């Protein structure tokens, strides 16, 4: 009877360890999916915003769309920053969060310019917004390296 309980207990422990490992793998996969979606969104943002900025100079609807895009990007930044990364991705997550701070700062400065009536597409292209968005996009390669 003792042997049976010992074997049954060991199987239970192995099962619990396996569940923990499976949970960690699932968390990592979920984090990578969310991060990939965020990075793709950042890349799309960097590609679309310059044209919107050019159109916004003469078109009120485009100006409103630009403001909306900038506001939505800020919301995505906040959502991403609140994620709890798996231990394997903490370094990359911290790099993205650091880049997000620069991106958000650039967005805030550009939004202030819009509110003050200064709408200059060149200022957007010379700002940290597009550079930082592209830096974030390049981190996808690092994420793939960590997982392989």
Order of helices and strands: HHHHH
Mean pLDDT: 81
Shape estimate: elongated
Fraction of residues in β-strands: under 5%
Description:
The chain is 87% helix and 0% strand. With 148 residues, the protein is an all-alpha fold. The relative contact order is 0.13. About 10% of the residues have low confidence.
Topology record:
Layout: H1 2-56, H2 60-81, H3 90-115, H4 121-126, H5 128-147
Helix pairs in contact: 1-2, 1-5, 2-3, 3-5
Which key features would you list for this structure?
single chain, 148 residues, mainly alpha, 87% helix
Short précis:
The chain is about 85% helix and about 0% strand.
């Amino acid at each position: 009877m003792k042997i049976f309980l010992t074997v049954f207990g060991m199987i239970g422990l192995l099962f619990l360890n396996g569940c923990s490992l499976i949970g960690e793998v699932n968390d990592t996969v979920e984090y990578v999916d969310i991060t990939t979606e965020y990075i793709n969104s950042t890349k799309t943002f960097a590609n679309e915003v310059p044209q919107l900025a050019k159109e916004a100079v003469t078109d009120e609807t485009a100006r409103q769309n630009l403001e909306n895009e900038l506001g939505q990007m800020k919301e995505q930044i906040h959502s991403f920053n609140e994620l709890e990364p798996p231990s394997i991705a903490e370094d990359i997550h911290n790099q993205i969060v650091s880049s997000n701070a620069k991106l958000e700062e650039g967005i805030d400065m550009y939004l202030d310019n819009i509110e003050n009536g200064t709408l200059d597409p060149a200022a957007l292209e010379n700002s940290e917004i597009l550079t930082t968005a592209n830096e974030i996009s390049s981190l996808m390669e690092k994420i793939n390296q960590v997982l392989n």
